[in-house]
Amino acid sequence: MVKFYKIAALFVIVILVAGFSSCSMFRKNKEQSTATGWNYNDPTQGGFEKFDFKGQPNGPGLILIEGGTFVMGATQDNVMGEWNNTPRRVTVRTFYMDQTEVSNLHYLEFLYWVKKVFYQTNNQQYQEYYVKQLPDTLVWRDRLAYNEPMVNLYLRHPAYRDYPVVGVSWLQANEYCRWRTDRVNEMLLYKAGVYHLDTDYDVNDFFTTESYLGGFFTKGDTLKGDTLGLPDLSTNKKGAKRRVRMEDGIVLPNYRLPTEAEWEFAALGLIGNTEFENIKERRIYPWNGNFTRINSPKEADYGQFAANFRRGRGDYMGVAGSLKDAADIPAPVISYYPNDYGLYNMAGNVAEWVLDVYRPSSFEDFSELEPFRGNIFTAPELAGQGKFQIDREVIKPDGTPNENFGRFKRRPVDSQIDPTLPFRRNYRTADNRNYLDGDWASLSQASNVDAAQRWKEVGNNEQATNKMYYNGEWNPAENKFGEGATSLITDRSRVYKGGSWKDGAYFLSPSVRRFLEENLSTDYIGFRCAMDRVGTTSENIEY
């Protein structure tokens, strides 16, 4: 009997020791701040949260483009006599890019949502917003060609749903990117189990990423007495919930158009020609070699064209049954061989909008890291008591859709918004589209040379800018721009890249750059989206 009690006592001691050990282990599992020693994720110590973030996931349709250094600009013979793309070495950060051009089907998804939210109201202004997102199908018309079937069928007929959308302006492409950001993040929150998906949309209260993170979105809100949401560790209240924050790593960065540098870097696909930081072979096209045909005998399509382009006068698709490039107009978005990043149709098919404002002299003054021209710095406009406010103006005074509708109301930075602006060294003005682009050279008066110098020193020279790029101010009463254009290039001129089904072989080179006004569209320009990569520059990096 005594032996039994000894064994029982020993068993109790083992349990107690194990219990204490487990408690000690539990306490050790509470990660501590290396700065303060306080526990993370511990309601008893303030509840500051640190989530296990394993890296940014790929958004729908995106491919990771590992960044690097490359020679941007034309490296082949300039047969067109252009001088606007002199080679220069730049570096592009890692980012994501759509595998294909945006298709008719995907753009119709956008139109469906916009029509459901905006057009099915009695408000003419809201209906106008939907109308302004419609592609211009009349771009197919030609005075000496029969293209009416394309006018009536290309956008909406299911036979063309996997073809790239055209007739879309730069402004419309940006609206699509913003809409896509919100729909993707809305679905991510739903799949994470922290959000009620509500498709009964209300024009005055619909989900945007910014309104949700800012605490303005109420319809479908997860904090109205239900059990959804993330645990609120800032309080000891049992079962307390909170909405998702940016710090949680659930929502993705914005979809957007790629910059010119990003697009050119991705199109070249030099990752396939790189060995130990050395580029073994330069490329003219997104594929190896100096030919427009598939040049590898190992490929089944050896000798066939590698892209959709116009081969010569009157030759859009080759002789029937032979030597075809598979299309007379744009081909489906998944056509031909992808480049080494896995991107389709980075040459031919349709040219593509990029973010940049066009300047022929962009190569003269540029940033070596992430070069881009087009920055207009803004900040949220505060209402009473220092609170943000949601912008409810759907159409701007110039007749264009308001990109901030349903999001924070914003305005260009100035000294009232940022009192430190006059003392900043990295920028001094909101609108930097014309910074160091040579606009001062248009001033013929010697007295204005001082103004040019002021632009370089201060970062603002409205006099020179207006002289060079004035294109007539918008007159809402007459619904048109005024007279007095002084240049073909304006602050609304946007770059588009890549050749198209209408272009010759020269334009297939990723280095070629052209421009068009941001509110115009054609039957040969489409677009694809990009997204910033947050954190590591490679999927293979481990910390």
Beta strand count:
18
Low-confidence stretches: 12-28, 441-447
CATH class of the largest domain: Alpha Beta
What fraction, in percent, of the residue positions are helical? 10-25%
Number of domains: 2
**Proper CATH architecture of the largest domain:** Alpha-Beta Complex
H and E string: HEEEEHHHHHEEEHEEEEEHHEEEEEE
Rg computed from alpha carbons, rounded to a whole number of angstroms: 28 Å
How much beta, percentage-wise? 5-15%
Q: Determine the N-to-C terminus distance.
A: 58 Å
What is the average per-residue confidence, as pLDDT, rounded to a whole number? 81
CATH-assigned homologous superfamily of the largest domain: paralog of FGE (formylglycine-generating enzyme)
Predict the CATH topology of the largest domain: paralog of FGE (formylglycine-generating enzyme)
Output the structural class: alpha+beta
Query: Helix count, per DSSP?
Result: 9
Largest sheet: 4 strands, antiparallel
Question: What is the 3D shape?
Answer: globular
Q: If strands are numbered along the chain, what order do they take across the biggest sheet?
A: 1-4-18-7
Features:
2 domains, four-stranded mixed beta sheet, 21% helix, paralog of FGE (formylglycine-generating enzyme), alpha+beta, 543 residues
Protein model, in words:
By secondary structure, the protein is of the alpha+beta class. The protein has two domains: 28-57 and 193-249, no CATH class; 63-189 and 255-373 and 493-543, paralog of FGE (formylglycine-generating enzyme), CATH 3.90.1580.10. Helix content is 21%, strand content 11%. The protein is built from nine helices and 18 strands. It has helices at 2-29, 104-119, 124-131, 148-153, 170-191, 209-213, 260-268, 449-458, 462-469, and strands spanning 62-65, 68-72, 88-92, 95-98, 230-231, 241-242, 255-256, 274-275, 278-279, 351-357, 378-380, 410-412, 474-475, 480-481, 493-497, 513-517, 525-526, 530-532. A four-stranded antiparallel beta sheet has the order 1-4-18-7. A four-stranded mixed beta sheet has the order 16-15-10-17. Helix 2 runs antiparallel to helix 3 (124-131). 32% of the residues are buried.
